[in-house]
Amino acid sequence: RAAGRPERANDVKLSRGGIREIEFTVQLLQVVRGGHFPELRTRSTLTALERLVAVGVMKPETAGKLAEAYRFLRRLEHRIQYLDDQQTHLLPTDDADLGWIARSMGLICTADTCELLDTLGTHREFVATEFDALLHDGRTPGAGGCKSCGGPPPQLDGEAFLERLPAEIAARVRTFCATPKVAVLRDETKLRLAKLIGRASLAIDEVDIREDAVLRFIDWLEPLLRRESYLALLAERPEVLNRLLRLLGLARWPMRYLMRHPGVIDELADARALQGRFERAAYLRDLNERHSAWKRGGQADEESLLDTLRRAHHAEVFRTLVRDVEGALTVEQVADDLSALADATLDCAIRWAWQHLRQRHRDDPHFAVVAYGKLGGKELGYGSDLDVVFLFDDADEADPDKAAEVYAAFVRKLITWLTLRTAAGELFDIDTALRPNGNSGLLVTSIASFERYQAGRGSNTAWTWEHQAITRARWCAGEPRLAPRVEAVRRAVLAAPRDAAALRDEVRTMRERVRAAHPVPARDGQPVFDVKHSEGGMMDVEFAVQTLVLAHGAAHPALRDDIGNIALLQLAEAVGLLPPSVGQGAADAYRELRRAQHRARLDEAPTQFDGEAFATERDAVRALSRAVFG
Fold first, then answer.
1. What is the pLDDT of residues 374-393, one digit of tens each?
2. CB contact at 8 A, 354 and 365
3. Does residue 332 contact residue 592 with C-beta atoms inside 8 Å?
4. Considering only CA atoms, which of 497, 200, 476 is closest in space to residue 341?
5. What pLDDT, in 10s, does the model give residues 122-164?
6. What is the spatial distance between Cα 360 and Cα 189, in angstroms, rounded to a whole number?
7. N or C: which end of the chain has fewer CB within 10 A?
8. Residue span of the structural domain in which 199 resides
9. Are 10 and 45 within one domain?
């Protein structure tokens, strides 16, 4: 209504930089991001600005200036309406009226200077700039006035465009254009794709991006062809595109993760979120706020909560991934953060899923998850399975049999919550093979039965390999009151007296079984070294540490602490269980082998190397095996 009408140029509501542009800016971001962040579903513009900052969609300084402009324009609008008692938004032209409005707002407006108009102009210019940046594909205000300036826009499949690209990239674009998904795209989308690929190609020289990063970027684009909001983000934010290209150039696995979970591209827009480390308290606080927002809106159904959990988890994994490939985290820190993230996600899933269990018999479950394997040892990697056992406490249950049925139903629901693939993707693969009696055992066990089983009381007792596994076990989620009991069981198992020779024989036999189940074939007739399964690899270190802990945990209580393989090796040498330098040498070797495995998996490369690779590390591991097993 204001466009092309000079008399409405000073309409504080509808003209450029006015109230409506602030509201439209906020509303657009609410519509686009409200699905991921229910807390954005508020009617208040000022509240929405605060929440856009809280979820990382808008920079604090931008939101602050928009809020300041909104308050100023609203105050001005009210005074305009007070002036003549009319429903109008036009700033008066009479000097006396302007002077009255200015004075009522604590400003000066005379023939020589008018703070009111100066302040109004500053606010409107900022609002208009932000509005244009959001809606006009990254062009500066006024940039769209000349339709023919700079020649025709590039055509994605045009020879003129392809000739400007490096040969290998041009060939990939031709293949890309030939796919049916690209052929049916709107012309506007094709132009945006051409612009993105052109910018990515220029980045090879301008910001030192690797050419294979651009090739991976083109491969990554295909899943996004129906998600134009993400293409628009990259078109509008060159720094986000460059950050993405650097990430894709460092390893192959990030591209696969982005293809499975394209929504995490939003994380690249907020550089602050990519710094630091995973923070459990902040993560759970954010999830709880989202849950509360769903409940306020009457939409806290299982589907919404499943998707909320997955999006939050994917975003945190991606942040860790970016920090990892950019060298901000060590391998140990990556494993610590991924393990802490899994713990927190399990804990949240337990609380949320319980509220949706029809048979629940109490407000909060007396329930715990015990982590084994990589999660138990806080060595979780990207995409690792979770080895877990589920326990419940029936000590104060009126009907223990009924409680067992309820918790069995709950574990089935919880596993569904954790493993089901929804529109937002998947969370975890769950391995429950370590439950008492293995695959034939119940999915969930009372903690009293777990104690009896591990302690070997009665006919149903744990095998040595299960005691090996419990060296890395820990309470990781659920009722905190059960954590000391789980740890007490673990420590009692590790402190139990054992025949050291018989133990070494049993562990050695189990090691040979595992090795036979994971043969390492030769490559082109040459021997190959697998960093995990080959002789002198990571598995040998882990079996040696387990043997040391089980054989000497009774005499050396410090060995019962869950401090990780590297620290346990150093401790075993310090207390004289290993010859000088053997423990430290094996610890250094284990760290380097883990680093090599991690790098290979990030780049989707084999974890098998030339037969002569890692000779120093393999010698150190062999020395450890000799010291432990003879």
1. 999 999 999 889 999 999 99
2. yes
3. no
4. 476
5. 998 899 888 887 765 444 444 443 333 445 677 888 888 898 8
6. 50
7. C
8. 159-250
9. yes
